[in-house]
């Protein structure tokens, strides 16, 4: 029954709507209230080993790589361990230095992506420790890694990944919380993140229940030849993923930029035909994000802001999509949901085969 459309027009829409339940599944049994941490029994590493890692390197392809960037940010924020993400497809070819005090994390929905699987092999061959963040149980990557976190997102049919990506982000939040509590994250901050995680499934549901304005905005995007997605720091991986999703299924060219980089070049492209989807969360960078929004509007660029109720956009001629507020570290997970719907509705509007976009496969099992 899981594999049926259950009344939805496309698998992608069905999978978008499965996210509240899928998110609850990845969190289930993993939140330890007493010690304000995450219980991750599958990691296969004891606390002393986990504490010994000086760096975390996340490897994945496409959208999984972008979520990996968010994961690295979460780990740096909560655990204060230097972390970064890299495209697994490039890793093997640049003679990577495999360090014994680095924990490698391979992230993949299918667990069969050849580029990611090869990166895992390369790390293992050189004696590195690698864990997986994987959806498909018993898949190649899941079998090769030393341990890991299963996503429990259920089967994902649509080529454009949605619920698996949300559960990847939640898995990284769990890993970051777990590592944080092994290092210097206080009990109070652990509780703050834990409570934030508990709110996520319901907050995703709220976004999905009030999605009509997002479909209306998608009508405008569908008319464009090209679009920008911009965000800063934690918002940048959201922008990258938003642009990726639009490209994949609507075939509209989209480019993601750090909002701060706009004035260093791409601002030249802003005109009335180039819409910009701007991530403007309520955080320490709100004012800077608003200043960039003003620059876009001054050049007559149509602006779509994905934002929080606490951000005052009344003075700007922007279309707004408001999402519920969570903790700053977790907000990107919720900010991503409207970008899925923007891409979906734009693609439907243009009459494309949403679940099977041209030239793409669900899992890329060749190099
Ligand atoms: C996501 O919408 C894409 N279809 C694609 O980028 C995908 O995330 C990538 O190919 C990695 O797949 P995996 O998670 O199965 O490894």
From TrEMBL:
Subcellular location: Cytoplasm
Superkingdom to which the source organism belongs: Bacteria
Catalytically driven reaction(s): D-fructose 6-phosphate + L-glutamine = D-glucosamine 6-phosphate + L-glutamate
GO biological process: carbohydrate metabolic process; fructose 6-phosphate metabolic process; protein N-linked glycosylation; UDP-N-acetylglucosamine metabolic process
A single Gene Ontology CC term: cytosol
Catalytic-site annotation from UniProt: 362
Keywords: Aminotransferase, Cytoplasm, Glutamine amidotransferase, Repeat, Transferase
Gene Ontology molecular function: any one: glutamine-fructose-6-phosphate transaminase (isomerizing) activity
Domain named SIS: residues: 45-185, 217-357
UniProt-listed Enzyme Commission number(s): 2.6.1.16
Subunit structure: Homodimer.
Role of this protein: Catalyzes the first step in hexosamine metabolism, converting fructose-6P into glucosamine-6P using glutamine as a nitrogen source.
Record protein name field: Glutamine--fructose-6-phosphate aminotransferase [isomerizing]
Organism the protein comes from: Microbacterium azadirachtae
Gene that this sequence comes from: glmS_2
Boundaries of the shown chain within the full protein: 240 to 606 of 606
């Amino acid at each position: 029954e899981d594999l049926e459309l259950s009344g939805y027009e496309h698998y992608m829409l069905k999978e978008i709507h499965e996210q509240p339940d899928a998110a609850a599944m990845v969190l289930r049994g993993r939140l330890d209230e007493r010690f304000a941490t995450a219980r991750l029994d599958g990691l296969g590493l004891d606390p002393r080993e986990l504490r010994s890692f000086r760096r975390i390197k996340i490897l994945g392809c496409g959208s999984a790589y972008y979520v990996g960037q968010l994961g690295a940010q979460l780990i740096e924020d909560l655990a204060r361990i230097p972390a970064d993400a890299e495209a697994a497809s490039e890793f093997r070819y640049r003679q990577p230095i495999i360090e014994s005090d680095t924990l490698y994390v391979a992230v993949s929905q299918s667990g069969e992506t050849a580029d990611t699987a090869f990166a895992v092999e390369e790390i293992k061959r050189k004696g590195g420790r690698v864990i997986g963040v994987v959806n498909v149980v018993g898949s190649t990557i899941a079998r090769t890694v030393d341990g890991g976190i299963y996503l429990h997102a259920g089967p994902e049919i649509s080529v454009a990944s949605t619920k698996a990506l949300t559960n990847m982000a939640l898995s990284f939040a769990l890993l970051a919380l777990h590592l944080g509590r092994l290092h210097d994250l206080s009990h109070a901050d652990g509780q703050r993140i834990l409570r934030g995680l508990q709110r996520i499934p319901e907050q995703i549901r709220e976004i999905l229940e009030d999605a009509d304005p997002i479909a209306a905005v998608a009508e405008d995007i569908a008319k464009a030849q090209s679009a920008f997605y911009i965000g800063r720091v934690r918002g940048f991986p959201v922008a990258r993923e938003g642009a990726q999703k639009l490209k994949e299924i609507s075939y509209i060219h989209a480019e993601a930029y750090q909002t701060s980089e706009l004035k260093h070049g791409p601002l030249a492209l802003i005109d009335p035909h180039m819409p910009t989807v701007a991530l403007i969360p309520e955080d320490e960078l709100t004012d800077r994000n608003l200043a960039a929004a003003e620059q876009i509007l001054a050049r007559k660029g149509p602006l779509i802001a994905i934002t929080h109720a606490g951000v005052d956009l009344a003075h700007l001629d922007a279309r707004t999509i408001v999402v519920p507020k969570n903790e700053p570290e977790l907000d990107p997970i919720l900010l991503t949901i409207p970008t899925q719907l923007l891409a979906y509705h734009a693609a439907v509007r243009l009459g494309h085969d949403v679940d099977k976009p041209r030239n793409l496969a669900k899992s890329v099992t060749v190099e």
